[in-house]
Amino acid sequence: MMKNPAFLAKIFLHLGVIACFIGCSNEQSWTFNHQISLPEKVRPLAMAEIRDTLWISDPQNFRVLKVDSSGRILDSIGRFQRPMNIGSFGDKLYVPEFLTDTIWELNNKEKHYFPINTNLQGPAGITVHQDTMAIADFYSHRIVLQSGNEVNSIGSRGHDSGQMYYPIDVEIHKGRVFVADAYNHRIQIFNDEGTLQKIIGVSDTLKVTSGINISDNMIFVTAQEQDRVMVYDHEGNLLQRLTEKIRYPTDVLLKNDTLYIANFKANALSVFVKGGA
Amino acid sequence: MKKYRIMKHLSLILLLTIGSLISQVASAQLLQVDQTVYGMDCAPCAYGMERSFNKMDGLEKVRVSLNEGKAYLDLSETNRVTLYAIQEKVKEGGFTAKKAEIVLKGKAEKQVDEWVITQNEEIFRVTQATEDGLMASLQPGKTVKIRGTVSDVKDEALDNQWEIQIKEALE
Fold it and tell me: Which residues pair with A125 in a beta bridge?
């Protein structure tokens, strides 16, 4: 029976599938690599990237910081009234100022007021993609979308599908709007017309989904009260649960195949890379 | 002539009343409150407290620390803010107010066998945990400025009476 070529072929085929599965899953998975310690007083709430450089919002100290890969502060821009989940586009940094309901645009250290054609109530997160800006409007329980002078909003206060309860972060990816619906403890995905397409994370009993980042095939979301970051595919299947060296994560950022996690209460960033350690 | 005298007396009474009110405002105040707050479990929630306090009259500076779970309030020289109003604000925000470290200016009075300090219709009962030396420095009817710790009162039982352990006499 062992000499039966058809049987041997089957065994090899199975072994090949198993080997591929292990290899593929390893390539897809994230492993803790190192931690970036920030100066003692820094409390990193959120991150953005401009020209390969990392920016951090530090609302406890009313500033945004430019840092290098070792955590050294390269630049500090202050006098922000609680800057929250910052966003970037091109060379510009966008800062939602929570206490004043204001959006600021930073261009090469110059700070400009960015007009929004609706009244915000606690802007907590922002993303800019081409000519569209999306803002997580915390106390209005909605996402504000502004393109040029046109303003639309998605969501209303509540716990049903499509409703929101204190959204904190938002991302736009390939025409879809991804919302960190923090106190509904889930991610909601809408199309650009505001129609709900998918809800993710409900079966994983997450607690306070506050930061979100999207790649072509993955969704990263922080569950800050559980000291973990969840990795999903775009269908909502859970791929991985990251917990190592993560403490009170409030934001996650994918940059050059490296995953950065802001640990708000640990004044440090955790860095994860793809594949084995 | 009689009418003139009555007018003069009334004016005097009015002036005295206004003077008395001004002196009360100036002599009885909360000047600083470091309020412990439970339940601030996210940055926007904590800063939401800050937004809420910023809308109160009489507050000069407000800072909420999520890490420390505290709201730090500096009050103006002419404020009429009560600790009750501060703790109600915390409650409205969906959080729980716990003990508070305060700087208080108020009139000391002896009531039966305990000292109380009054300000803006609030009564702070000085607890026996206060050091003897600090207790001995209190004089009936005299305005004092002290730093102390106000014990926690359950949110559902908030009223205008508090227990305070004096930690330091400032004036």
Answer: A85, A136
* ipTM score for this prediction: 0.74
Instruction: Select from B44, B54, B67 the Cβ nearest to the Cβ of A124.
Output: B44
Residue type for B34, please?
A: D
Return the residue of B nearest to A57 by Cα: B43
How many angstroms separate the CA atoms of A212 and A232, rounded?
Answer: 11
Neighbour tally for B60: CB within 10 Å: 12
Give the residue ranges of DSSP H helices in A159-237: none
Percent of chain A at pLDDT > 90 equals 85
- Residue B7's pLDDT is what? 67
* pLDDT per residue as tens digits for the range B142-163: 999 999 999 998 878 888 899 9
Mutate to test the interface with A, among B51, B54, B70, B92 (most CBs of A within 10 A): B51
Angle at A55 between CA A113 and CA A242, to 5 degrees: 130
pTM of the model: 0.82
What is the Cα–Cα distance from A149 to A154, expressed in whole angstroms?
A: 17
CA-wise closest residue to A200 among A212, B57, B114: A212
